[in-house]
Amino acid sequence: MLIVYALLGFTISFLTTFISTPRIALFMNNRGIVGIDVHKSSKPKIPEMVGISMLIGFSMSLVFLSIATPESSNTYLAVLISIVVAALIGLFDDFKDLSPTLKMLLAMLSGFPIIALRVYNPRPIIPFIGRVRLTIAYPLAIPIALSVTTNAMNMSDPVNGAMSGSASIILTLLTIAYMLTGNYTAFLVSLALLGATLAFYFYNRYPAKVFSGNVGSYAVGAAIGSLVVTCGLEVVAVIAMLPQILNSYMILSTTGGFKGKKDITVRPTRLLENGSIEAVKDQQAPLTLVRMILAGSAKTEREIAREFLALTVFSSILALITILILPPGG
Amino acid sequence: MKDTFWIYLNLLIAWISIITGFYLLATLVDYMRRLSSSTILNLSEVLITVLLFLLWLFLWRLLTIKLFRNTISQKST
User: Fold this and answer.
1) Contact A275, A40 (CB under 8 A)
2) Residues in A touching B6 (Cβ below 8 Å)
3) How confident is residue B68, by pLDDT bands cut at 50, 70 and 90?
4) What is the 3-state secondary structure (H, E, C) of A161-195?
5) Alpha helices of A97-233 — where are they, by DSSP H?
6) Residue A193 pLDDT > 80, yes or no?
7) Are β-strands A269-271 and A130-131 bridged in parallel, bridged antiparallel, or unpaired?
8) CA dist A66 to A9, A59, A88, A175, A207, Å?
9) Do A129 and B25 touch (CB under 8 A)?
């Protein structure tokens, strides 16, 4: 029965997102909610905030799972509310362009449904150490963890398909990890979340027909964060997200803290006349993952996106190896 | 992939250092549990973890910037 629920959860999430994405894109296009694809010479206008379709996909599949397996409905509900809260913050950011500090603080709110519904296990499993009891520290760390994942995914959307593609890879890894560790509730949730990101990647990959907007990247970040906080395997998820963490950490540390796009005077990359992109050599420019990828030579946007995903596959393989060194009982 | 090899190397070093850090922490905690009372021990465990994490962040930043500058300077020559 588990396989049937897993497949249905995935299919509902995938199909809902796959069908709703072009419709939402058309809606956004008709209302002039478009963004310029800056990495292309023709500067095409692409429908923005279409990531709402993933939110619909997540919601439909989680509602299905809570009907199919009501014993875990609190977990599904907590994950769903976290995603909705993060998506609303992203939506607000899309319209109001929030300051980075405020974004970081507001993203913490997405952790509160998990604390309120008490669907976390304050005993994370750590390699070589085993289960550690963090009765007080764990709930305090949940809003921070959610803020980190939402902002990390939000900052990891520089080229077509980078965010949705890397989220799909991370969720695939987590699905395998939960299956291997026998956590079947988590397996159902991660497979359901994977359906939406995979369907969205189909439209968002190079050359992108849609942009997710902050609403989409926040929802995806909260989906991964809330899944891990409620279902465990925290260290494995951190390893899988190393490229996204490296990207966010280096941006923050080389720009001297939380700064908006307007405050960064030197751009990290520049579009060349032949359509390829090169890294800016100015030391004042923020050190982003894309700038690192371009450090050796100029590349096309397609090559950058491919490299971005290859790095996530590499870190996911490292995460998979990490599962093998987790103490038994994880 | 040739000119992005350093990023893979960077991620690999980060992963090895995280795993080694956990191993060191496990050994240290095991050693300390034999020496001290549990209350002081829990506080010192947390402090050591935080200090190790901050040290790791600092070293990872240094390594990334060093590798990046090395790669981008080779491009200009």
Assistant:
1) yes
2) 295
3) confident
4) CHHHHHHHHHHHHHHHHHHHHCCHHHHHHHHHHHH
5) 100-107, 112-117, 137-155, 162-181, 184-204, 213-231
6) yes
7) unpaired
8) 10, 11, 22, 18, 36
9) yes
B3 Cα to chain A: minimum distance (Å)? 5
Measured CA to CA in angstroms, residue A263 lies from A217, A266, A284 at distances of 22, 9, 12
Burial class (CB in 10 A: 0-12, 13-18, 19+), A55: buried
Asked if residues A214 and A156 have their Cβ atoms less than 8 Å apart, the reply is: no
Top mean-pLDDT range of A113-117, A295-299, B72-76: A113-117
Determine if the pTM surpasses 0.90.
Answer: yes
Q: Give the ipTM of the model, two decimals please.
A: 0.89
* Contact assessment for residue A247 and residue B20, using Cβ atoms and an 8 Å cutoff: no
Cβ distance of A246 and B3 shorter than 8 Å: no
Q: Please give the DSSP secondary-structure letter assigned to residue A287.
A: -
Nearest-by-Cβ selection for A127 from B1, B22, B29: B22
**Chain A residue with minimal CA distance to B8?**
A311
| Distance from the B71 Cα atom to the nearest Cα atom in chain A, whole angstroms | 6
The C-alpha atoms of residue A225 and residue A218 are separated, in whole angstroms, by 10
Count how many pairs of residues, chain A against chain B, have C-beta atoms within 8 Å: 81
Per DSSP, A264 falls in state -
Predicted confidence band of residue A330 (pLDDT cuts 50, 70, 90):
very low
How many Å apart are CA A164 and CA A200, to the nearest integer? 7
| Distance in angstroms (rounded) separating the CA atoms of residues B68 and B73 | 8
Nearest CA in chain B to A324: B19
Per-residue pLDDT for A226 more than 90?
yes
Q: How far apart are CA A65 and CA B49, in angstroms?
A: 38
- Residues A170 and A164 sit within 8 Å (Cβ to Cβ): no
pLDDT at A234 over 60: yes
